[in-house]
Amino acid sequence: MPEKLSNWFHRTEPSQFEVYSEKYKDFLMMKRKNGIIEVRLHTAGEPFQFSWDAHSVWSQAWMDIGRDYANEVLIITGTGDRWQTANPDVWKTKFKDWTADDKLKMYHESMRLLENLIFCIDIPTIAAINGPGTHCELGTLCDITLCTEDTDFFDPHFLGGTPPGDGMALTLQKTIGIKRAAYFAYTGQKIDGKTAVELGIANEVHSRDRLLPRAWELAEMMMERSRSTRHLTHSILSRPWKQALVNDLGFHLAHQMYDMANDEVGPHSRLMQVKERFKG
């Protein structure tokens, strides 16, 4: 619905959907209908494959989406039968051999891709996790999280010989508790969709063909309420995540990056030993 502002209180530079949806189209396919914006992760129209370019894009995209007052509800989903595909090849250059500026860029982007999702977006958020894959924390941080039965909530860091500091372990701690989070962080054991709902990581589990329609049903229900009700409800419900990120994300990430900076072997070699885990 159009925003009604007084003529003396207009927006100087609103973010334009046509501009940013084109800007990020190689990583995020966007569509919008009646105020509901759907953001679909992809790589060349196929399931999303992790890359450093995509890692840079997320934080910028969240800011542009959040600045666009025409966006009323956000749905985040993936492509095909996978949420994200891990790509151990991104670690072929050992982190200790990255330049100082490479490492600083990595630090800021790792912080902002989660912080901007929480701090820059003032509208209700729904994740529709459409299958297995890493970085489910992006979906866990949304107000409502839907998933498929074969969704694979797991943290691969310890398997690769790296402390789990980029948000996956943090979201597990805040949803399933410190003891369960410790177990799954150490073991890398799979948490499927049904178990994720039982443990409290996700809200509903659906078949893949039902998943996205259900997300739109929820979004359309939210649109029946006023803009202020939507915004302020999201503010209340996202506040615990804001507190968690402020309190702990930097601490977690600093530990991960310190260890990586001193790692003589590198995660690529270790991940290759368990690469079948990522193909599952």
Q: Label the overall shape.
A: globular
Provide the CATH architecture.
Alpha-Beta Complex
User: Could you give me the name of the CATH homologous superfamily?
Assistant: 2-enoyl-CoA Hydratase, Chain A, domain 1
Assign a percent range to the helix content: 40-55%
N-to-C span = 43 Å
SS strand fraction: 5-15%
Please write the CATH class name.
Alpha Beta
The helix/strand class is: alpha/beta
Q: Kindly report the spatial arrangement of strands forming the biggest sheet.
A: 1-2-3-4-5-6
* CATH topology term: 2-enoyl-CoA Hydratase, Chain A, domain 1
- Assembly annotation: single chain
Element order, helices and strands?
A: HEEHEHEHEHHHEHHHH
* Number of distinct helices: 11
| Average pLDDT for all residues | 92
Summarize the main sheet.
6 strands, mixed
Tell me the Rg in angstroms: 19 Å
Give the number of domains: 1
Q: Which stretches are low in confidence, meaning pLDDT under 50 for 5 or more residues running?
A: none
Let me know the number of strands. Answer: 6
Give structural attributes.
280 residues; alpha/beta; 2-enoyl-CoA Hydratase, Chain A, domain 1; six-stranded mixed β-sheet; 11 helices; 6 strands; 48% helix; 11% strand; globular
How is this structure best described in words?
- The chain is of the alpha/beta class and 280 residues long.
- It has one domain (17-279): 2-enoyl-CoA Hydratase, Chain A, domain 1 (Alpha-Beta Complex).
- Helix content is 48%, strand content 11%.
- It has 11 helices and 6 strands.
- A 6-stranded mixed β-sheet has the order 1-2-3-4-5-6, with helices on both faces.
- Helix 3 runs antiparallel to helix 9 and helix 5 packs antiparallel against helix 6.
